[in-house]
Amino acid sequence: MKIEMKGINKSFGQNQVLRDAGFVLDDGEVHALMGENGAGDRVIIRPS
Hints:
This is ABC transporter. This protein is mainly β. It has one helix at residues 41-45; strands spanning 3-12, 15-25. It has one domain (3-45). The protein has one helix and two strands, in the order E-E-H.
């Protein structure tokens, strides 16, 4: 199975941090989004 996401946009108020981003996860791959405490890594992937 493959998961593909395109056209991802994310803003915090007037500050746009992602514009038309995308990624593909192929079968068997493992990925992680990591950051220091309070860096916003969890907020970036939370659906709005």
